Amino acid sequence: MARPKQSPRHAAQYADLPPRGPVESLIYWRSAARSGAALGAGLALLVALACCSVVSVLAYSSLLALSAAVAFRIYKNVLQAVQKTNEGHPFKWLLEKDISVPAERAQSLAAAATAHLNAALAELRRLFLVEDLVDSLKFGVLLWCLTYVGACFNGITLIILGWIALFTLPKAYEMNKPQVDANLELARAKINEISAKVRAAVPLGRKAESEKDK
To answer: Three-state secondary structure along 122-174?
Structure first.
């Protein structure tokens, strides 16, 4: 995807940036206007869902879109009548556009979703049935932390925070990649060191690890 046009003042900051797909371009703010619009529209929708029911949000959103389409159609018809032109239907290019999902695309998405689901189920089975004691203890600590998160935030609030983080954290990481990678490596090394000590102290952990090696 081609990068958006930038003024000379901002051209230098995009010179060394890696190419991104359309979704990644929004997340990494390759075009501030598009990314800001996506962030704002998503926040507006999520805040509306937090205040109203899903049915109400869908109904009002659809009604707003329908009203805008009808008003634009009437405006174009009146304009054509006044100017005595025959430009046709204002949404002709959208009506003629193929919006069907190819069967191959649907099958590939279903296969990818099935693979992720199977991997998640296998991992959950491994953690809940304590195949590796240390990994299950880590999972238990994570679940314990989530109880505090759930006590402070509801589901829609977490989704709103996640939406904001989606548009801020990747860009912040891209701008500070060396420092973040260095700190993450230190944290990973510390966690691996603690995990190794726990596995060495717990016989069950050593047994599970030896079975994996076999």
So the answer is: HHHHHHHCCCCHHHHHHHHHHHHHHHHHHHHCCHHHHHHHHHHHHHHHHHHHH
Task: Count CB atoms within 10 A of the CB of residue 59.
Answer: 12
Question: Could you report the per-residue pLDDT of 7-42, keeping only the tens digit for each?
Answer: 444 444 444 555 567 788 888 888 889 999 999 999
For residue 60, the one-letter residue type is Y
Query: What is the token pair recorded at 130?
Result: 């304590």
> Crossing angle for the helix pair 177-201 and 203-213, nearest 10 degrees?
110
Question: Who wins on pLDDT, 87 or 179?
Answer: 179
d(CA 39, CA 189): 35
Q: What distances in angstroms separate CA 91 from CA 55, 66, 86, 101, 132, one per listed residue?
A: 27, 13, 14, 21, 59
Q: What is the pLDDT of residue 56?
A: 92
Contacts of 3 (CB under 8 A, 6+ apart): 14, 17, 19, 25, 30
Q: What is the 3-state secondary structure (H, E, C) of 35-62?
A: HHHHHHHHHHHHHHHHHCCHHHHHHHHH
For residue 34, give Cα distances in angstroms to 24, 45, 156, 159. Answer: 12, 16, 24, 21
Q: Which of 14, 7, 46, 40 is nearest to 28 (CA)?
A: 14
Under DSSP, is residue 169 helix (H, G, I), strand (E, B) or coil?
helix
DSSP three-state, residue 79: helix
121 dihedral zone (left: phi>0; alpha: psi -120 to 50; beta): alpha
